[in-house]
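Re: export button greyed out
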Amino acid sequence: MAIGDLYNANNVVVGQAAVFFAPKNTPLPAFARVAPSIVGWNQADPFDAGYLGATLWASGSATSTIFTYTLDDKAYVGASLTVAGTTAALIQTNLINALTAGGLPTSIANANNVSVQGTSPNWNIVFRGPLAGGVLTKADTGGASTVTNPLWLPCGATDQGWQFGAAKSTQTISIEEQSTPVATTVTSQQVTIAGSLSEDITRTLNLALNAQNTFTAPATGVAGFDTVTLTDTVLQYAVAMVCANPEGFGRIIYAPAWTQLANASVNLRRASDKRMFGVQFSTVCATNQIQVTNFTVAGL
Amino acid sequence: MSDEDRASTDGMPEAGSKDKTLAAPAQVEEAEVETTFVVPEGLPFQCTAVHLPQEDGSTLVIDREGTHVPSADLEALQEQARASGVVLNTEVSD
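Workaround output, generated via the alternate export path:
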């Protein structure tokens, strides 16, 4: 993938960069990826959701289970899946059927956006594109299995991509005996990632408003809803920005602690443009914890 | 009238009785409600709690770190939460 290539392997427009966030101090997953694994860093496609968005299902002692994938508060419940003899294809079909039964079109709920790989009892499941960012749960019978969801969530679509910056304030040190400075020190430095989020969902509201939410389940005659509550407590996140590079292998910028305190100003107009939520992540960690990993040589 | 006839069945002293004390009212012992500690699974990390509206108009709040719920209502609560993609895990210790 060269600079300027806006499409990933699934022919989905992903732009020049994609930003993900997680609880503060969440480390990056391991880079290792050996075929046929679908997790780990994909050298051919930096935007592969298998790196930051892989879910692990360990079937354990369960004899059957019912998966539920919850995306933007909507629950997609699958049919019962028998553990014994199950395959990646069967798990994939089970999940796709749950999504289509819940109303998603096949243009979204398909084998391109739901990937499953592994060998019993451990299965890796990756939800891609519009399906990314949800939570997978299960209801077991006959025993217990475990689901480990990714901690990383996508910031989602933006208005004009992302802007990465490292602004420094410096102090020159001069002496009388020399016209040019003898040294320059960095008095302060601000590393930022800024963009305008364009997905009008609770996840975006929480980020843009420094807020958290509670979820109230639906009741008779009352729809379910999120309650987004702003807080004066500054929330901190781990943030990773994935982008392409000239070598074609990709680049990832990461730091374990960022805040998001940009002023929010959203236009709600009848026929002008989409709602946009400006965000600017700023690091609040030590300088040496800010890492830029630039992949330049193919793996073995 | 014999003393037996005058005997009161409600514990109250008879008129003219020198006993001024009143019988203590019967104590109503509140039965302890058995609870189960549950932890909600399936919440995005930005979501701090799940609220489950009940038929009596109250709302049961299940905190992300875990909450005690009445054991008698556990199965119904789990079913209610599951419809929203939330699993109330009981295999945890508080």
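The mean pLDDT of chain A is 90. The button fix ships in the next patch.
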